[in-house]
Design brief:
Blueprint lengths: L9 H16 L11 E7 L7 E8 L8 H9 L7 E4 L13 H8 L3 E4 L11 H7 L3 E4 L8 H9 L3 E9 L3 E3 L11 H11 L4 E5 H7 L18 E5 L8 H5 L2 E3 L2 H10 L4 E4 L3 H10 L2 E9 L7 E2 L15 E9 L2 E8 L3
Parallel strand pairs: 3-4, 4-5, 6-11, 6-12, 8-9, 8-11, 9-10
Antiparallel strand pairs: 1-2, 1-3, 7-13, 12-15, 14-15
Length: 343
């Protein structure tokens, strides 16, 4: 399990939480930009655990304002002399909007704390710009889960891939007769839909489409749709029959690599692979699976369909290894989140 430590005072600890929450509110709506959160605040001298929040902001959809500018616009003149916590180093380049670092200086912010350095060489350098222009700057390394896929995508120059599957304790995703609904319970399934709404695309193989006729939408417990909907992507050369996907719209690519390349080129930064077994093995063989969401149900089958349709390694020493990120309990089911060791 990855362990993080950070050194901050009580004010910064409270502001850090506010910034992470602001980023979480826009998670899934910002690609190709990261879902950054920002808070502008003043310290409360009468209460060391309390901050006076002036404004918060989250990154707007592509072409819109970055989180810092959203917060600065909301704060107005109250930003002068205030402090800011932002989950990603403020950018120092002009894209669709101007440099956030420059806007922070112009607004008169006295101190900036950022939680993750920007790995994009085009946009990096904001911290140095701020420091050079008289702003106190502090870097507090802190894990921000909504930023992990984007940071991974920037480091590798491709979409970040999460493999999601639900399995029995003995590793089967379906019984011998093909039945798989439902391995997990309602709470686990609702979590899956929440995560779908945070992804840019859901990828399945033609075998899954032919067998299950999935809609691949992100749905709330009452059946209504989340505001953020992933792109529906099918990999394989077989024809997709009339059904949910043809009514909703989908993209089809012959190979996994073709799909990943096309998604990256069109702004996707985080995709979820939901199977089936042939596609899942292909993604692992490509070496592009950065994270795993494994839902384990308290049942045993003894035989059935496995997570993959073939081996990835013939010995333990050559196995692909992941590290534990966290574990969560969804009623009787368990969600295990893992990340690749070299990420």
């Amino acid at each position: 399990m990855r362990v993080y430590s950070y050194d901050c005072d009580r004010y910064e600890d409270a502001a850090l939480w506010e910034a992470v929450q602001a980023g979480g509110e826009v998670w899934g709506s910002t690609s190709p930009n990261p879902p950054v959160g920002c808070v502008i605040y003043r310290e409360n001298p009468d209460a060391p655990d309390i901050i006076d929040v002036i404004a918060t902001g989250g990154t707007e959809p592509a072409g819109g304002r970055h989180a810092e500018r959203v917060a600065l616009d909301a704060a107005g003149e109250k930003a002068r002399g205030a402090h800011m916590v932002v989950t990603l180093e403020p950018c120092n380049h002009t894209g669709r909007t101007g440099p956030c670092a420059e806007a922070i200086v112009q607004a008169g912010i006295a101190k900036v704390v950022y939680l993750n350095a920007d790995p994009n060489p085009v946009a990096a350098g904001g911290a140095q710009y701020l420091s050079d222009h008289g702003v106190a700057v502090r870097h507090i390394p802190y894990p921000v889960r909504q930023l992990d896929p984007w940071l991974t995508a920037m480091r590798h120059g491709r979409v970040s891939v999460t493999a999601k599957f639900a399995a029995t304790l003995d590793g089967f995703t379906a019984a011998q007769d093909g039945t798989s609904q439902w391995i997990t319970g309602p709470m686990a399934r609702s979590w899956v839909h929440e995560d779908r709404a945070r992804c840019d695309a859901i990828i399945v193989g033609t075998g899954t489409v032919l067998a299950d006729d999935p809609s691949l939408t992100a749905r709330k417990e009452d059946g209504s749709l989340y505001s953020n909907q992933p792109r529906r992507v099918v990999v394989g050369t077989r024809d997709v029959p009339e059904g949910n996907l043809t009514r909703l719209g989908y993209e089809q690519y012959a190979t996994p690599q073709e799909a990943l390349d096309a998604l990256w080129a069109t702004g996707a930064r985080h995709v979820m692979v939901e199977g089936g077994a042939t596609l899942m093995r292909s993604m692992f063989e490509l070496g592009v699976v950065d994270a795993i969401q494994a839902y384990l149900a308290p049942m045993l089958l003894g035989a059935g369909r496995g997570i993959m349709d073939g081996p990835l390694a013939d010995t333990l020493s050559s196995a692909q290894r992941y590290e534990l990120e966290d574990v969560a309990v969804a009623d009787d089911d368990v969600l295990i989140r893992l990340r690749r060791k070299d990420n």
